[in-house]
Amino acid sequence: MSTSIEVRNPATGERIQEVNVQTTEEIQTAIEKGHKEFKKWSKINAHERSRLLQEWSQRIQENKEEIAKVMTMENGKPLSESLGEVNYATSYIDWYAGEALRVYGRTVPAAAESKRIVISRQPIGLVAAITPWNFPAAMMTRKAAPALAAGCTFIVKPAEDTPLTTMTLVKLAHEAGIPKDAIQYVNGKGSVVGPLFTESKLIRKITFTGSTPVGKSLIKGSADTVKHVTMELGGHAPLIIAEDADIDLAVNQTIFSKYRNAGQTCVCVNRILVHESVEDEFAEKFTKAVAKLSVGNGLDEGTDIGPIINEKGFDKVVAQVNDAIEKGAEVLTGNEYVVDREKGYYFIHPTVLRNVDASMEIMQEETFGPVAPITSFKTLEEAIEIANNTPYGLAAYFFTENYKTGMYLHDHLDFGIIGWNDGAPSAAHAPFGGMKDSGLGREGGTEGIEPYLETKYLSVGNLLD
Ligand code: SIN
């Protein structure tokens, strides 16, 4: 097994840093330490845990510029997006610093005078997280903050492409006063660390953000130890533009939703469905705006679209575009690449395709790249059928000025997150998560702390009248 990971800048292919990979024994030791620490951390009162989380958030904010730079260097996203992600990451810590104080139990009227029924909540234990490369800070804090707030201890394995941001966040947590064994990281391949996590009896919960196939294997692996799981998996978001939509608003919001992080987000718009009466207008305005986006190194000012994370990701996007063109899609802009396989960088110019249909891979599978396919529909029923015709159910978007159309679409779309005239619904104070193959459980909001808590029911009998 390799003993280190070379972290590379996806914009240049250059090596940034080499980080140690933990051995199996070291990972087991980390698990044992986290398990032992749980006894202490879970007993620290909620107000103190909340204070430590606030301190962590503040330290991250104080080091914001440096963290954002590291993130852009290892992930490739534009610096402004990295700065935005640091804020997004601390918003989860801030929210759960508050929720730590609101883990309430309840009492229930008993059927006998001599009884009392008391229901309380307690932290579930040591939690293991596996986090993705596309949001190396926010996906980590979205898991760590509710876990720590609830009184759980936490161990994270970041993506091999982007371990540096996570390592910095864990260091700052320790500097803020959160005990070393209450929050730890381990580096290594998912195929090695994943089974160590799932098979461990000391870990009571796995939380994962990443692909659906990996999520399914973690769920299967967790069955023998009956672990709790939260899975935030793939998406294939439809965006519906109704005939009465505000087209300028739709263009603006679709650009944000589609091209943020070079189209490498689970909630990215993947399929644009436009009512036939406004398709020409939307396609023209959207293409004009997309053609203005600039591609380059995320550290350079003015860059809108950074590189694709790696060769595998690039090849998948290009194969989808070629398949669509072969089957009759029209390229409105883009379909240009800046690639050096030797050095290891892969840029895709933002691309818009028209005349796509269900026979094309791009309409069936998640894209994870800056490519927007446009198709048209005649009726809302048809739009819903196309939108729901996927195993995924993470995010969906629609644009309409009519409340009846809006509520109808809301009621019929099988997705966990819906943006109505809004391409940016994610927020720390709202539940994020999907239906069907997009996952299990929710992160964020009041729902996001629930998966870290057990329910204990006490029945007291033989009481005095
Ligand atoms: C994701 O792509 O998984 C997360 C995106 C978000 O939180 O908005």
If you had to describe this structure to a student in words, what would you say it looks like?
- The chain is an alpha/beta fold and 465 residues long.
- It contains 13 helices and 22 strands.
- It has helices at 24-41, 46-62, 64-75, 79-99, 138-150, 163-175, 190-199, 212-222, 247-259, 279-291, 311-326, 380-388, 403-412; strands at 4-8, 15-20, 106-108, 116-123, 126-130, 153-157, 183-185, 203-209, 228-232, 237-241, 269-275, 330-333, 337-340, 345-348, 351-354, 371-377, 392-393, 395-399, 417-420, 435-436, 439-440, 453-460.
- The strands form 6 sheets. The protein has a 7-stranded mixed beta sheet, with helices on both faces. Strands 7-6-5-8-9-21 form a 6-stranded mixed beta sheet, with helices on both faces.
- Strand 1 and strand 2 form a beta hairpin.
- Helix 3 packs across helix 4 and helix 4 (79-99) packs parallel to helix 5.
- The longest helix is centred in the first third of the chain and has 21 residues, at 79-99.
- The protein is globular.
- The model has no long low-confidence stretch (mean pLDDT 97).
- Succinic acid binds at residues 134-135, 209, 232, 265-267, 426, 432.
